[in-house]
Amino acid sequence: MQISTVRPPVHNALVADYFKGDATLQTFFEYPFHQDAFQKRLQEISKNQYQRQALAQCIEQEMASYGVSPKAKQHIKALADGGYAVVGGQQAGVFTGPLYAVHKAITVIQLARQQSEALQVPVVPVFWIAGEDHDIDEINHTYTLQDTTIEKRTYKDRFIEKTMASTTKVTEQKLQELVDIVVADYGEQTFTKAVKAQLDQVTKAKTFTDFFMMLMTALFADEGLLFIDAANPQLRQLEADYFTRLITHAEEIAHVVVEQEQALQQAGYGTPIMAQADAANLFYVDKGARYLLKREGSSYICESKDIRFTYDELMAIAQDTPEKLSNNVVTRPLMQEMVLPVLAFVGGPGEMAYWATLKPAFQILGLTMPIFAPRLHITLVTRRTQFALQQLDLTVEDVFQGKDETEREQFITKQTNQEALQQLDEITAMLQEQYASLQTQLSPALQRIAKKNTAYHQQQIAYLMKKIQQETMEKHQAKLRQYELVRNELLPNGGLQERVYNPYQFIAFNGTGWVKNMCAINCEIDSNHYVVLL
Q1: I need a labelling partner for 495 at 20 to 30 A (CA). Which of 13, 279, 393, 403 fits?
Q2: Where is the Bacillithiol biosynthesis BshC N-terminal Rossmann-like domain (predicted)?
């Protein structure tokens, strides 16, 4: 495995300015991103009180059915005994979801280890699963690279209610069908059989979160990554008093978030969450489905389901049945801060944008927004793609800059019989001119026939041109497939690889060694993009 850095293939002004330490952007965050801030943050949260024993029990109970590794047990004990956490999170996508979920976990693990050494205190890696999210269409599919072609593969079932990932039931039969087609797409690679054997085991999962947990705990067992599901009923009990704080300050939180988002927009960074002044920023959960609440006078309502609670009724729900409440994009970070001793939060560009709206919401609750640590951005390159790049005399950065597409078009143009195409263009122009002249000599009825006749000839010429081009493509298929491979592996659908493929696309070729190796090293978190040659 070889690692290098290149310029980011996709420019994000917010991320770029964050790393530059832009003075205006920095006002939206509590801490700058440098080592001195970690020491300051540690001093801040060391004063706070947390339900450490209950939290440790909750995490251990959450992970028990998936196996708690010796390293994970050490981390659970460290958290219970006064340790701190680097936290990242993601929705529970099939096959772990896109690669960036794994990249987040790697970043969390690396940063926790780095800060534990730098600060000389226990810092453990924690992954917060957004099992309460109900947008199943975001997590029920994955993409594969079938030879050189991108395919979308979906868990096929109908979900009528907006049930949470942690309560949405999946069946072994449908999971097996999905696993079979995904692994078939990978082809007979070095580790395909091992991947198939592992994925066949996890088809016994009961929910999307269960499927996610089975895979992630296996991938990161040796690193002791701790997992906690936001929808865990035991966690909800621990959060009861925190929900009452969120309800008590709901109006103030909504107000300051709207104001902060307006300020963020004026600074040129858009409106990432489209905050509403009447938002309660909480969901009500009924039979596993989530319903967004908003404030109407002194009531909390969801008009689409005819749900209405008074302030006192909602407070009673928070105290007595907190599992009936769920956080949204605004309150999830606030809840994390109350539950966990968060030294730093690891997130991607989208999360950075919405966290930039939340600083005053933390302050309303008497909290301090944690350090925001951007996750590592990584592109993996299989050996077959490395070979294709060598054959084409291209680099990964060349592909990021579009040089491969330019050279591909130039190659096709050079190899195509341009003289024949030019002659056909001339014939087409002559036909149009001659038929236009002929039209003036014909009756209306014959003009219609002549028009159809013209269209027929043009269609036949176009068909011949297509066949000439097709002949070129077939003659040089091997080289053109190399162009297709490097493009579709490195920038699938014109976007970042980490947002499209799941890790098993690469585990099928190289096993899990690259995951362990990436966890073991220390990558600098900066504006660079990491390229990993597998």
Answers
A1: 393
A2: 1-376
| 182-210 per-residue burial string, b: 16 or more CB within 10 A, e: under 16 | bbebbeebebbeebbebbeebbebebbbb
CB atoms within 10 A of CB 232: 22
Q: Which residue has the tokens 């999905």?
A: 178
Give per-10-residue mean pLDDT for the chain (534 aa): 93 95 97 97 96 97 96 98 98 98 98 98 98 93 97 90 90 98 98 98 97 98 97 96 98 98 98 97 94 95 90 98 97 98 98 98 98 98 98 97 94 75 79 80 82 83 79 79 97 96 98 97 95 98
Whether 88 contacts 104, CB under 8 Å: yes
DSSP character at residue 11: -
| Cα–Cα distance for residue pair 230/387, rounded to 1 Å | 43
Contact partners, residue 186, CB within 8 Å, separation at least 6: 144, 192, 195, 504, 505, 508
* DSSP code for 169: B
Find the largest Cα–Cα distance for the chain: 98
Q: Residues 15, 349: contact at Cβ < 8 Å? A: yes
Contact indicator for 209, 36 with CB cutoff of 8 Å? no
Closest CA to 246 of 342, 360, 364: 364
Of 482, 498, 493, 492, the C-alpha closest to 379 is: 498
DSSP H stretches of helix in 267-321 = 311-320
CB 289 within 8 A of CB 162: yes
| CB-based contact 355:64 (threshold 8 Å) | no
CA 446 to chain centroid, in Å, comes to 61
Rg of the chain over all Cα atoms, to the nearest angstrom: 28
Map tokens 């077939």 to a residue.
474
CA atoms within 13 A on the CB side of 351: 19
Query: Following DSSP, what letter does each residue of 490-525 receive, concatenated?
Result: HSGGGS-GGGTB-THHHHHHHTTHHHHHHHHS----
Q: Model-level pTM?
A: 0.91
Lookup result for tokens 């030879």: 147
**Neighbouring C-beta atoms of residue 175, cutoff 10 Å:** 21
User: Measured on CA atoms in the order 50, 52, 57, 58, is the torsion positive or negative?
Assistant: positive
Measured CA to CA, the distance from residue 249 to residue 367 in angstroms comes to: 13
Nearest to 273, CA basis, from 356, 334, 370, 348: 356
Contact 123, 83 (CB under 8 A): yes
Which uninterrupted H or E stretch holds 281?
Answer: strand 279-286
- The Cα–Cα gap between 186 and 426 comes to 47
Query: How many CB atoms sit inside 10 A of residue 413's CB?
Result: 11
